[in-house]
User: What shape does this take?
Amino acid sequence: MADKQDKQDKQDMRDKGDHLSTSGQWLLSAYRWKTEPFMDHYVQGFKEKKLLGLKCAGCGAVYLPPVPICARCHSAMRPEREEDWLPVSQEGTVITFTVSYTDVSPGGLRELSPEERRIFALVQPDSVDTHLLVELKECGEDEVHVGMRVQAAWVEEPQGVLADLSHYIPVKTEGVSPGHGT
Assistant: This one.
């Protein structure tokens, strides 16, 4: 009987437009992340603020970040071969984006003020056949657009870890303000 009442309460909340929440929390900072061996060379490039793509010997597709198997031709990638690693451009183009209007906090969902909102973009790096999901900073939600040119932004003192690639920012061009040029 309690399950039926619980379902009805949740439906009533949905009908009123209220948010549903669950107890407990999931803090990403509580977890440690590791990379697989095929990522080692890629992540080591971060120490020098370099993006390194892994080229498939079977079809020539370039992956950023690297993958163990080529999605195009299904060949095994060869991360142990130095010649298969290519320096790639730190610039790219926004393919799509989303603006985060809410944040998940220990108390549930929290609406973000315009200053707190975060922009996440799917970026097509130049000379690469894959996309990167990145946070986009130094532009407002009214400035970001599909086709926008962006570039990698690094932490000041890289350590050779994934967090060294901090986010992406609009490409600065002379005479054009950030976010208003292609």
Q: What stands out?
A: Confidence is low (pLDDT under 50) at residues 17-24, 176-182. The chain is about 10% helix and 30% strand. Residues 2-16 form the longest helix (15 residues).
